Amino acid sequence: MKNNEQQPEFLFDKINYKILLIGIGVIALGFILMSGGGSDDPNAFSEEIFNFRRIRLAPTTVLIGFGITIYAILKNPKKA
């Protein structure tokens, strides 16, 4: 066989995959921040579910993570 066989071409470049993994990590961090705050007793109400971390910080972190992943998908590695 000759050397004129084509190498498989990936859809994204290495930088796109790195940015995508960072975005997925930020999304996972957001969901980890949302977890917890439950009560051991189902009859007792816990105000802990309404704190800043679960209402503001975690959803904002998830949205930023989605923004990063969308950027990684739309980024054209061919342009300088």
Biggest β-sheet description:
none
Helix content: 55-70%
Q: How many domains, in number, for the residues?
A: 1
Structural class computed from helices and strand pairing: mainly alpha
> How large a portion of the residues is in β-strands, by DSSP E?
under 5%
Number of helices: 2
Instruction: Give the overall average pLDDT.
Output: 87
Rounded to an integer, what's the Rg over CA atoms?
A: 21 Å
Instruction: Report the uncertain regions.
Output: none
Give the ordered list of helices and strands: HH
What is the tally of beta strands?
Answer: 0
Tell me, briefly, the overall form: elongated
The N- to C-terminal Cα distance equals 35 Å
InterPro entries: DUF3098
Pfam family, one: DUF3098
Keywords: Membrane, Transmembrane, Transmembrane helix
Protein name: DUF3098 domain-containing protein
